[in-house]
Amino acid sequence: MKTKIFIDGSEGTTGLRIHERFAGRDDIELLPIDPEKRKDIEERKRLINQSDITFLCLPDGAAREAVTLTSNDHVKIIDTSTAHRTEAGWAYGFPELSHKHRENIKEGKRIAVPGCHATGFISLVYPLIAEKILPEDYPISAFSLTGYSGGGKKMIAEYEGKERGAEYDAPREYALSQMHKHLKEMKEITGLARKPLFSPIVADYYSGMVVSVPLYSEFLKDNRGPEAMRRFFADFYEGQKFVKVMPFGAEEEQRGMMAGNDCSGWDGLRIFVTGNEERQLLTAQFDNLGKGASGAAIQCLNIMLGCEEDKGLNL
Fold first, then answer.
1. 162 CB neighbour count, 10 Å cutoff
2. How many Cβ atoms sit within 10 Å of the Cβ of residue 137?
3. Residue closest to 132 by CA, chosen among 182, 86, 190, 184
4. Containing H/E element for 194?
5. How far apart are CA 162 and CA 270, in angstroms?
6. What phi, psi does 234 have (nearest 5°)?
7. Which residues contact 21 (CB under 8 A, 6 or more apart)?
8. Where are any strands of DSSP class E within the chain?
């Protein structure tokens, strides 16, 4: 029997990508909505409750509203918005973090897909806090470079518009108020005592991102250097299909550079450890539209369905 899927918000960047990823799958039945009724609450309610699993690809407020429309007990929700990522009763959709995270996704009815910047940050910091290598009160900082598709349809139109201003030609730092919407999950999911100092940057390319966390080795357990840190991550993520810890020194294949678009179109995540014995840099490289959004949503779906975890994905 096919699983009935409804995508609420199927015209947005993430919704369209999720829809595309179902092409060729014979285990899924998509429930379409008349384009003229995309904002019709009663029609959305009907389709949500007719589905086995509904994807929410909506702004936060609309996602919260959509959950209240669920009246059928068997309906499961996968929410790609920020709305429920730290809410009680919602599984956080990052199965590689622990056996418990994976089981919560497999058995859960409410799954919150991680944010793109948060995915990179948490992939690096969660293991360090969980294994007590990094103190919870470490004053951590991070920076992130992303393609403009991360800003959704409006930003895509701005970057691809014929009359765009010269400022779009250069990388642009944003969230200067230190109030980025991913900060809450970055703190709470990792177990940090305070929100990190976070500097995201958007640049003139479509998709892909690099998230980096600099650390002083002297504040780490055992004062471990970068090679020992690389071995730690390799052990932590051993056997995970979607997370690849790169060999120490792998960045030299790219002349010591880290391109933001290198993982565009790929649904996994690479981890690099670079630096020296005093100061090191942890870096996650992935696609903001892949492991950072729709790819992670489909991975969670696959876990819930008990099929191959990478079905319909590009690894």
1. 4
2. 9
3. 190
4. none
5. 34
6. -60, -40
7. 294, 295, 298, 312, 313
8. 3-8, 28-30, 53-56, 76-79, 91-92, 110-112, 141-147, 172-173, 197-203, 209-216, 243-245, 269-275, 279-286
Query: Do the beta carbons of residue 297 and residue 80 sit within 8 Å?
Result: yes
Round to whole Å and give the CA distance between 192 and 187.
Answer: 5
- The pTM (predicted TM-score) of the whole model is 0.96
pLDDT in tens, 186-222: 999 999 999 999 999 999 999 999 999 999 999 998 8
Integer Rg of the chain from CA: 20
* Rounded Cα distance, 114 and 81, in Å: 8
Longest CA span, the chain: 61
Strand order, beta sheet including 209-216:
172-173, 197-203, 141-147, 209-216, 279-286, 269-275, 243-245
Query: CA-CA distance, 14 to 150, in Å (whole number)?
Result: 9
Contacts of 248-251 with C-beta under 8 Å, sequence gap 24+, read 248/273
Residue 234, both tokens? 């390799």
- Closest by CA to 77, choosing from 40, 103, 47, is 47
- CA-to-CA distance for 40 and 59, rounded, in angstroms? 16
Instruction: Determine which one of 116, 263, 300, 307 is catalytic.
Output: 116
User: Can 116 be counted among the known catalytic residues?
Assistant: yes
Cα→Cα distances 57→18, 192, 218, 228, Å: 9, 28, 43, 40
Taking only the tens place, the pLDDT of each residue in 80-137 is 999 999 999 999 999 999 999 999 999 999 999 999 999 999 999 999 999 999 999 9
